[in-house]
Amino acid sequence: STPVPRKLFGEIRSPGYPKPYPNNNISTWDIHVPKGYVVKLTFRFFDLEPSESCFYDYVKINADKKNLGRYCGQLGLTIGNHPGRKEFVSKKNRMHLEFHSDFSNEDNGTVIPYRGFLAYYQAVDLDECDPSNAAEEDEKPECQHFCHNYVGGYFCSCRTGYQLQSDHHSCKVECSSELFTEASGYLSSPEYPQPYPEYLRCNYSIRLPKGLSVNLKFLEPFEIDDHQQVHCPYDQLKIQARGREIGEFCGKESPGSIETNSNEVDILFLTDESGFSRGWKIRYTSEKIRCPQPVPRDQFTIIRDLQPVYQFQDYLIVSCETGYNLMEGNQKLQSFTAVCQADGTWHKSMPRCEIVNCGNPTNLTNGAFSYINTPENNTYQSVITYRCNEPYYRIVTGTRGDRFTCSAEGTWVDQDGRVRIPVCLPVCGKPINPVTEVQR
Amino acid sequence: ILGGKSARRGNFPWQALTAIHGRGGGALLGDRWILTAAHTIFPKGVEDNNANLEQLAEKADIFLGHTKVEELHKLGNHPVRRIFIHPDYKPKDEYNFDGDIALLELKHPVTLGPTVQPICLPDTNNTTLYMDGHVGYVSGFGVEKNFISNELKYVSLPAIAREKCQHWLDSKKRDLPMVFSENMFCAGFLKIKRDTCQGDSGSVFTVLDMESGHWVATGIVSWGIGCAEGYGFYTKIINYLDWIKGIIRED
Q1: H-helix or E-strand containing B57?
Q2: CA distance A31 to A119
Q3: Which residues between 93 and 132 in chain B have a beta carbon less than 8 angstroms from any beta carbon of chain A?
Q4: Interface confidence: ipTM more than 0.90
Q5: How far out from the chain centre does Cα A89 lie?
Q6: Is the pLDDT assigned to residue A203 strictly greater than 80?
Q7: CA A68 – CA A63 distance, rounded (Å)
Q8: Residue B171: beta bridge partners?
């Protein structure tokens, strides 16, 4: 009995080959190729004493606990069972050969020198993934999801969302840290629309650049185990945005569309030990986050080119009507711009418009001013008039007149827009009480 | 003022009382100028006349706003910033009062009112101001009946034709060779005792312009031979308008 070294190929020769084999010989060979291969054996030369049912001399081939045949005879003869060019293939990585020769090779007193056999074997890759190659019913590779054959072996893999377990065959749902970073996409419960597995702790995270807002749209069907009296006691679908829970869902009524106003969304799916609900599927999209529509604080505020919607990185410019100043607190502004930030807020709050105040008019030496408008104040478009202390002084205004108006620039100006106030000049030679001669 | 009357408050609101070298008069122009006679600042016949104008300005006392000297003093003086003497005035020439005109700039403008108002200057084109018989009024705090007056007096005097002034002066030249220049005019009476006198120098001779209704200064009390003994002689303001306006406008 000769164990054949575990090689990928080799030869098996009858004893003494190519010389005639001896009588009364029993020889066995165990062919053992590496795991992942099967043995394929062919006879290059076969010359044994023919006999009915190979009773005298024979070669018996066994593999996988099965008898692959008993062979004897010579090529071309009908007596015996010549293997010819037949290929003997095992289902596993072993094959057993047994050679048996009886006590003589005489035929009618003549010794016939039967030379025996020369066999060639080779290891052939076993496609473990083909179920028909299984030696026994219970020896199927049993990759739970996918089987991948290679020369000398095979490996299993799993569907998306599943993880190959330590036995390298079974697949378990892995959804504890699913990350989505594309601008849009789909996510669903495992096996959707087939019933989702039990004991799930799925966490789907959508992470987009700042300034984007995620919108979720639930597709049909939507089925999560629920209870009529108690809210989501068995399985729960929770949606969180920036750590803040938006909602907890179950049942058969789809939540529809949800605008999260956040670039970071987490979807938690927790299931208990039973249920046949089909689960859920979400299509998510993103758009630039929106800021609140700007609202003027008063009727004098002007928002330039007001847009119907303001999104991240949009800006707006605010000004006031003529005669009003832009104010932020107590500070007067020359201009105002606000930018919509990544968190959906404006980087500055809306200013207000305050009416221009020219302050008290310049006092006129040897004169005075009075208000024409009511109420008497120093605000935009108020009008005053100057006069001198008559009859001792006379007003000199040139062509400008004696009326001054509070301008939009915050100064008192005459009708020509000049700020210089009139002058009171002395009146000469007009005594209040001139000398008067009476007697003549 | 000889032969005059007491002025009431507001009759001559431009009248100033000066105290530079003794009592003098002046007239308010605008709200910060006093028109007066140069010889009230640089008297003729005074040997030590070397004080400079800055020192004189510091010393000068100007009073406005009342007819009584005591009340004028109570109202307080108006300090002088600068003094302008006409360049034609010759302090050393005792007989020639040509250029007897000066301007004093007050440090602070005065507030006008019923008792403080300026006098007007004459119109250059008005040729009737100095015609023979054109009556004007002169006010002043000068001597009256040998006593310096404590209140403002005034007198009306007619302007006299130049020939008459010269003729009368010629009759007095043996005593004093006074010069009657074209920058002067004379006014008054030969026989009637109405005249200006010492202490009235610098006060203005005023006439009422009937067209405009304004009182106009046509002369400045300058010199005379005695008081009420003939005509009085006055600086002819109309000849100095360019000089006056040049100084006032430049300021």
Answers
A1: helix B53-59
A2: 11
A3: 111-114, 117-121
A4: no
A5: 49
A6: yes
A7: 7
A8: none
